[in-house]
Amino acid sequence: MEDFVNLTFDEMWEKFAACDRAYDGLFFTAVKTTKIYCRPSCRSRKPKKMNVTFYQDILEVEKAGFRPCKRCRPEADHSPDIGLIRAAIAFLMNHYRQQLVLRDIASYVGISSYYLERLFKKEMAETPRNYLEKIRVDKAAHFLRTTERKNLEICYEVGFQSPSNFYRVFRRLKNCSPAEYRRRSLSS
Length: 188
What we know:
Strand content: 5-15%
Number of strands: 4
CATH superfamily of the largest domain: DNA Methylphosphotriester Repair Domain
């Protein structure tokens, strides 16, 4: 199983700056000046961007000489099923462009679709489908901020099958249309 995710430094920084709990366990934020590493959701004061390094594996970050944060305790798993959830999330992060059904994710992690959905809801407070939509919208927002691609190109690039669904989900999660989001990000 490949539990690593393909995120750029800037994408990981955004998730860390936003204290996004959904990315906990997928990567760790190490602060060079303090030699401490945290979860993406850590509420501690944020360091300067230039002092941060990201690691995908807890063993790798500890081998590099960083110690765990005492506030967010990134070394502690809070649930016995967190490994399955991390594997499912990594699968979603790495395959978000594809048309996925719950059965694909469940077979990847080796459990039934019903059990995966129930477990995912319990641990993440949302369904795998909603989580996948969030990943796709986050990627679309990143493209809207950093590229000149048209909304329709971005829609298909991030894995949405129809523009109407893309616009509906984007508006629900970002409280604005993709065009409004691009205008706001350019003006900031």
